Each structure stands twice: as structure tokens, then as C-alpha cells.
Amino acid sequence: MIEVPKFNGTKEENYALCLKQIKAMINGEPSIIANLSNVSSLLNQALTEINWVGFYLYEETSNQLVLGPFQGLPACIRIPLGKGVCGVAAESGKSQIVANVNEFDGHIACDAKTNSEIVIPLFKNGQRVGVLDIDSPNMNRFDETDQKWLEKVCELLVNEMP
Predict the structure, then answer these.
(1) What pTM value is reported for the model?
(2) Residues 6+ away with beta carbon under 8 Å from 101
(3) How much is the pLDDT for 4?
(4) Which residues contact 33 (CB under 8 A, 6 or more apart)?
């Protein structure tokens, strides 16, 4: 049985605990879908003031991101590269922190309650894999601390991928 610990430390402590849990969960598991599902669930439990967390996976044949495992309301199924926060992160290979999605040119609104967003690209051996996308109903919810730790989560994930 998996027991999710209470995340009631500092932001850094909570992320460190979350990363430790993720390492234990995905260690040696070859299923990408299973790992992404568990990671989205754990991040949903660990992070406060969010309304959606999940993954979009790159589909080379269509040159789009396709909805993967997530926690939250139903979401957009396909996102072209370069479109919206997710598409920009996937195309550029750079993490995106958006304090106010209403000011992001070309934002794709899946949930009208979302006001800020962070997207971390996933690349393995220089190849695009997808993105981790986290939304919040609060303005300016995400910062460099979130980016640093979520990039560590994504690095861990891609290192476990076959």
C-alpha cells in the first residue's frame, strides 16, 4: 500500500520529499504511462493552489502534443508545437512560467479558472518527449523554486524512460 505523506514543510522540503517519493515509485518501472500517471497523482497531492497537473506527450507523426496522464478537469487533447504555453515550451525546449495566462499571447484556455501556469519540457537524448503542465487558479502561483524542482522531477522521469 502506498501512503502519501503530509506535505507541510517549506516549499523546498516538500519538493525534496516529493522527489524522494517519485524516485521510489518509478525506480525500475519501464511503463511510461504508469510512471506519468503516478507522478501526476503525487504532484497533485503535494502541490497547493493548483487545479490541473499532467503531461502532454509529443507525437512525431502529427508534430503535436497529445494529452497524457493527468489530474484535474478534462483538458485539450492536442496542442500544436509553438501554440499555447505547452506548445511554446515543447518547441523551444525551455521551461515557461506564466504569472497571468490572460497576458500570454496565444494561451489555450482549457479551464477558465486557470490564471497562472508552469510548463516544463521533457527531452531525452535531445529528442522531444513532451511536457509537464501545471495550472493554478491563482495569479503568479509559480516561481523559480517550482521550476528548479519540477525540472528535477522531469529529469528523473526521462532518465527512467526506455
Answers:
(1) 0.94
(2) 85, 107, 109, 114, 115, 116, 117
(3) 60
(4) 68, 69
